[in-house]
Each structure stands twice: as C-alpha cells, then as structure tokens.
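Q: Predict the assembly, please.
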Amino acid sequence: MIEYDEIDNRMVLKLVYYGPALSGKTTNLLKLHDLLSKEGRGDLMVLDTTNDRTIFFDLIPFFLVAPSGLKIKLKVYTVPGQVKHDATRKAVLQRADGVAFIADSQLSEFSNNAASFENLEKNLSYVGLEIEAIPLVIQYNKRDLTHIIPEEDIRRIWDPTGIHVFTASALHGNGVVESYKALLERTYAYVDKKYGLFNMHGLDRDSFVSKLTMLQDNKVV
Amino acid sequence: MNMDNKDNKETIDFIVGSERKIEEILRDDEVKPLLTDTISAGASLAMVTDNEGVVLWSSGKDSASSYVVKNPLTLEGENIGHLIIKGDKQVEEISRITYNALSLFLQTNLKRMLTTEVHLLVLEQSNQELLETNKQLSASENKYRELSEHLEEKVKERTAELNQAHARLLQQEKMASIGQLAAGIAHEINNPMGFVMSNLNTLKTYMARSKELLQQCLSAADRGMVLPEFGKSFREKWKQLKMDMILSDADDLIHESLDGAERVKRIVSNLRGISHIDEDVVGKVDINEELDMILNLLSHEIPSGAKFIKKFNPLPPFICNPGLISQCFLNIILNALQSRSEGLEVVIETTCEDNQIIILIKDNGPGIPDEVINRIFEPFFTTKEVGQGTGLGLTMAYDIIVSHGGTIDVEGKNGATFKVKLPIRI
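A: Predicted assembly structure:
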C-alpha cells in the first residue's frame, strides 16, 4: 500500500512485475496498455531504457471508484531484471501489494528464473514483506518459442506450492490479462482483509477485478 | 567510523510511487515565464490552479473577457489541476501552445523526479552496502593484524613444542634401551635361577633322606642297640653339633630359599613380560591380563592398607605394541599409587562398547587442581619434588594411547580418574 488517505477517501495500491532479465515484464505492461480500456487507466510511462532494457521501471496506473466513493489508484510497475540493478528492484518493491513473477519459459533460462525468484524472496524480506503472505502469481512467458520447459514440468514444480501459475505469450497478448486478473483477485483479498473493501466500501471482488480489466471495445483475448 | 547514521543523518525516505501534487512537480521559474509570455502573446489572464480550484500561479489581470479556455492538467492519468486562460478569441491558439508546454514540463519533470529518486535510493543503498563491506573489511583486517602480531608468539610456542617432542623422543630411546637392558639381565638371571631352584629341590629331597637316616641312628643309640661306647659318644656328638636344631632349621632354610628363588623367578618373569622382549612389536593382547601383570609387578610398591578394586569385563584381543601398552598403564597406575599414602583405593574398570575398549582408572587421592589439569600430559611437568618424578610418565602414557588411535581423558574432581579409550582395529 503506497497510500491510504481516509480524509481524501483515496487509496493507492502497488503491483510489481518481477522476474529475470528479458523475460517480458515490460511487454506484459505494454499489452495491458493495448488491451485494456482507456477509461480505467492512464498512459504507460516508460522511464529511460538502454537498448530496450529497463533500467529504472515502467509504470501504468489504473483507476477505480468504489460504491462508497473510495478512489482507488492501482500502480503497476516493472522492475529492471538485470542482476546489476538489484538496488532499484528493492526500491520498487517497497510497499508492494502484489507481485507477478514473469519467468522465461526457455530451457536455457531455467537457472536465471530460479536465481531471480530467490532474489525476489530475499528482496521482499529486505523491504519487510513475506513471500508467503503477499499476493503472488507466476507467469511462464514466451510459450510461443521452441525449446521451452514443458507445462507438466512447470506444474510439477509449482503445484505443490499452491502458487497460481499461468502460461503466456506476452508478445501476442496471450495469457497477459489472465495473469493480471488472477493477481488482482489475490490482491483484492489481501487488501479487503485489512481495509474492508467490501464491508466499508461496498466493493466486491468481481467488480474490483472486472472494472480494472475492462477490455477495449475492439479487442478480443 | 560511526556506523549508526540514524541519529546524525537526514534520511531520504522516498517510496517509489508516492503521490505528488502539481506544485511539487512544477517550479516557479518554469511556470511564471510561461504565463508571462502567454500574456505578452495577447491573453489577459493566465493561471494554473490545483484540483480544488486554488490558484497556484497567475499572470495578467482578470477582466470580463469573452473567452475562457480551461484545460485539465493530468499526471499519471489523473486530473491534478487546470490551466485557465482568458482573453479574446485568439487565446484559443495561445492557450494550446501554453498547455502543451506546461504538459511537457509536467511529464518530463515527473520522470526526472522519479529517476532521481530511484537514483538516490540506489545510491543510499550502495552507500550502506559499501559501509557494511568496509566494516567487514576492517574487521578482517583486525583479525589478520592480530594474527600477525601473535605469529611470533605462535612460532615460539611451536618451537618449544618441537623441542619438547625431541626431548621426548630422546627419552623414549633411553627408556627403550633401559627396557632392553632389563630384559637382557632378566634373561641372564633366569638361567642360573633355573638350576638354583632345581638344585634346591634336589637338596630338599637329599636332606629329608639324610634326616631319616640320622634319626634312625639316633633312635638305635638311644635304645641301646649299638655298642654302649658308640651310643654314648654318638649322643654327645649329636648334642655338641646341635643336630636337633640343625635338622629342624635345615627344612626352614631350604623352604625359605625356595620361596626366595620363586620370588626372584616371578619378578624376572614379569620384567620380561613388561619389556616383551620375547614378543613381536605388534601383537594381540588381553588388556585385562596385561593389567593383572602390572599389578603383580607393582605389589611391592603398593602401600600397606591400599585396596585395589578390579572390575574387569571380558575384552576382545587388542592389537597393539604390547610393551608400550603395558608401559602406559603402568605409568597411569603408578601415578594413582602415589596419590595418597594411607587409605588408598584404586578402582580399575574395563569395558568394551561400540568397538572401543574403555579402561577407567580411578583413585581416591586429592584429585588434580584445575590450574594444572591441562598440563599433566606435558613433558617434564610434575607436581612432585625435584628428583621424585621425571614428569614423563603421563606424557608417555598419552603418546602411547594416541599412537594407538585412542584418547585419554582426565577428570580431577573427587580423586583423579583417567579414562582411556582404545579403538578396536581389525
């Protein structure tokens, strides 16, 4: 939670797209920007990049007003995936309300995924968050490529943990909104428990998720 | 270096993503010239308000102008204020230019602020990490400095240890030659002792026969079965030569001599046993038998009234250098014997468990004070007066146990307890 102002009746939430370098975090945000209705969101802000590699972060804001009048702003961030930008990752991760871990499906990236997930665990605890508690979904991106980890292997690895795993091909838009929706569902539960989104503000989970994921008229996923 | 920078340093506490107001993003020197220029270009009033309509910056004068252009200013997709320009019809064009310029300021300033913040956060973190690294480095530097300072001391210690080991070797050599000498002498004594004992036994038989014959003569003389002159002179001669006393003493003499010879034989045999001259350097021994032999050998050293309690359990044969092993236990038991002159009680217990032979030797002496317990195995360390002990007994015991892959522990409370553990090698 970035901010909760009861006088202004305003809440600012933060979601973070985490993962190894070049796994497609920014592409996920780009696709959300392309696919979702302009009405509920702001523009994608891309802070400086070098050769298409994120060095600070990307940001796309979403908006929603609860029946009580509570204005909710949801900021979705990416972190730089490259190992050397660890301090930036820590900074962006502060006060996150949910994390989407974007893994690279390519077999060659297996150990990078693992290292990045370990890094996520470490940095979450660095900023005082627990990986067991924070809303988390995993997306295995780049399913359109060859030489990728088979889905049954992914299931075998992650199913015992209870973490929701999606497969996606962000470049083509597949799985992007689904992963985002699942993360929103978990984030709703997480925030509702603390701030009574339903009891105090009359906002139920389905309208929270559907308002934040309204598709543009001409888009079909 | 003061690592605690919480108290004396202003901490920069940004949260990436925290919300900002329009006046935090736009600066006077950016907005004011822009608004002035707008007036110069023909507008009568130009102002920037926040979301609540509060005027933040303005230029020109309010007039009853026919034209008002009000454009929303947005940031991260949200409305954060307005640009309001009044004037005549041409202000529409002017306001468009001003609005674009202002929006551009907003977007670029926000990006600049965000990147600067992240930069500062990153720098602060790197700084903290560097400070931490520096702390660790100086800690390890201290460690190495300490190490190098003590190096000389360590070298001295090691040299002393080496010298002591050398002395120990010399001593061992000496002990070994003494042992061989003793064994050689024992062997030499054994042969003459053999015929001394055999002769004494023969002499005993001869003596018995002579006695029988003499007794017969005496009784014949007494009963008048011989010539009276001979009988009388025989009686007198008997008395003169104190034959009664001689005949009764002769038995005692032979008996005592045989006893003495037996003892000499036993001592010699034990001496041979202790030096194991007849055995190979490595052999199988029963530690219980070995301990028994040592106790026999020491019988003359055991103070009167001392009690030995043996709690021997059956042990598997132990492969070792028998001479060294018995030397080792001899030294430990000697140490126990010297712990107390009266009322001494020594418990010797042997057990076998977990493939180890465990020998416990416990005395009820004064025990070992804490300040010397760590030193008792040191060569030449002794609590006895000069000339009383060599300070080598326990050192040898220790070396022997260690050379057999075993351990020796000592407990100094309630008397001294030595616990020797020997691994059974197959």
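Chain A touches chain B at residues 2-3, 12, 14, 41-43, 45, 47-48, 56-57, 59, 61, 63, 73, 75, 77, 87-88, 90-92, 94-95 (CB under 8 Å). The domain at 3-212 of chain A is CATH 3.40.50.300 (Rossmann fold).
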